[in-house]
Amino acid sequence: MLTDREVRRRSLAWLLPLLTASLPKRRFAPRILRGVGDLLLRAAAAHYSIARARARSRRGPSERTGQRVLQQLDRRKTQRAVTLALRKQARRFVPPHPVDCAIDFHEIPYYGTAIDPKRPQFVKTKEERGTHRAYRYASLDIVTRDFRLTVGLRYLDHRGRLAAVLQDLLRDARATGVRIGRLYLDREFYGYEPLRFLAEQHLTVITPLRLGSRQRKRWEHGRRSYVTEHLLKDAKGRGAPLRLRIHVVVRYQKGEKFGKHGCQYLIYAVLGGLSLEARHEVPLPKTHELYRRRFGIESSYRVAEQGLPRTCARSVPWRLLYLGLALMLENEWVILRLQYTSEGRQGPRGMDVREELLRFDDLLELLFHGVVRALGTVREIRNPKPPPRRLTRWGMSL
């Protein structure tokens, strides 16, 4: 049976080492770190700031103490601590066979100014929610049919150097014990440098193309799906052209989405799996269905945002710790569902997860009640000063 105390205990089991490893040599008392950990969990469960979490708690460290601890976070140590924490959390639940993985970017809008104008901590993006600035992260997820797990998270202060981002995330996945079958990428990774790096790694990759009107006219024809080849050249002229297999998937739109009718052309670049004898082949009819699994990582971001504490801090490690906390809470939710709500079934899957028994909202509610047991809660509000006389003159009975 899963209780609120067990959820809090398991959450603190990975949060306290993460918080300790993110701090510099200066040590805080274990009692203070445990109190700050409870405040972070309460802020994540209720989706508000750590200041609000302390204001609603009767016990625990003060707001100033919690902010002093978080202000001591080191950027490199926090990145390493989050990487090791995700690795340790997911390692026991990684399937032994090759699995499908997805890499995507996550951008959190930012409305403030830069800490260092010469090297801002955010990146420029398309205007969204009233701003063109955002904190940028990249993550790698296992996207199987039964569950999704985040095994790598990297903070990025740039929009380029995509090959280096892929190298770091693939290193994190392999250190966790993940054997990558197919790798699904966002269209932003369609470029010579990242695809050449992946070709050298002998991975099976599916990514949509970034096309202009001229290239679309070249491939958007006919009513049947087909396969062709394309030579991707280096814009800098440093390397040999990269031979890609292009899958043009043709689907007929029946007006169900945006009222559109007619043929829809979905064009993907495929690396690896070029022959039917390949271990991880990519059949043409299943290309779109396979790539749809990548959308699971975007669903993971939407779920994790429910457990993301609020903050207006500009600190990079502060925000990285918050996002790592939210993603690890989601990982814990996936693991708890496998342990407490799964049943054995006949068939190729061999199991069935009863998702209705434990929603992510249910986990956050259990976590909230478990933390309230330790911190208490404010049940009354009292003003030490008397109300103004003006309200009495207005006829209000106070």
Fold and architecture overview:
Helices cover 40% and strands 22% of the residues. The protein is built from 13 helices and 11 strands. Helix 1 crosses helix 12 and helix 5 packs across helix 6. It starts with a helix and ends in a 5-residue tail after the last helix.
Can you lay out the helices and strands and say which pair or pack?
Blueprint: H1 4-21, H2 30-46, H3 50-55, H4 63-71, H5 75-91, E1 99-110, E2 123-128, E3 131-143, E4 148-156, H6 162-176, E5 180-185, H7 192-200, E6 204-208, H8 213-219, E7 226-232, E8 242-254, E9 261-271, H9 287-291, H10 295-304, H11 316-340, E10 342-344, E11 351-353, H12 360-375, H13 389-393
Parallel strand pairs: 1-5, 5-6
Antiparallel strand pairs: 1-3, 2-3, 3-4, 6-9, 7-8, 8-9, 10-11
Helix pairs in contact: 1-2, 1-5, 1-11, 1-12, 2-12, 5-6, 5-11, 6-7, 10-11
Structure summarized in a few sentences:
It is built from 13 helices and 11 strands.
Beta-strand percent range: 15-25%
Quaternary state of the chains: single chain
Please give the share of residues in helix. Answer: 25-40%
Instruction: Tell me, rounded to a whole number, the average pLDDT.
Output: 87
User: Any idea of the CATH class of the largest domain?
Assistant: Alpha Beta
Label this structure with key terms.
398 residues; alpha+beta; Transposase Inhibitor Protein From Tn5, Chain A, domain 1; 2 domains; two-stranded antiparallel sheet; 13 helices; globular
